[in-house]
Design goal:
about 110 residues; alpha+beta; about 25% strand
């Protein structure tokens, strides 16, 4: 009887210790937030709109759709990379280029291609 107690007691203590280590060292799942799931987006009121900056650093806007903000949309004036003629002054034509954000750059003197 004493022999069985000496054999069983260390095994029981080992399993209790292993259980305690697993319980205390295993990260527990966080409680879900109360209310609707947000998926990283902020809540808003229908009809709201606001200015924002895109991931490329361009000015844009976002609107509230079904209580969540839309992605930031660039306000484009032109197609990036396109160039057009412009007036530097009354007598001189220049050229302006559309930047990566879809905004016209300054009117600059045309480069002579030679």
């Amino acid at each position: 009887m004493k022999l069985a107690l000496y054999l069983v007691l260390p095994i029981v203590l080992f399993f209790l210790l292993a259980y305690a280590v697993i319980i205390f060292l295993t990260p527990q799942a966080a409680e879900p937030p109360a209310g609707p799931v947000q998926n990283g987006a902020e809540e808003c009121q229908a009809g709201q709109a606001e200015d924002c900056i895109t991931s490329k650093g361009c000015d844009g806007y976002r609107t509230c759709v079904n209580g969540m903000w839309s992605p930031c949309i660039t306000k484009r004036e032109c197609t990036p990379g396109v160039a057009e003629s412009c007036a530097l002054n009354i007598c001189t034509l220049g050229e302006r280029k559309c930047d990566e954000c879809g905004q016209w750059g300054r009117c600059m003197p045309k480069e002579n291609g030679g």
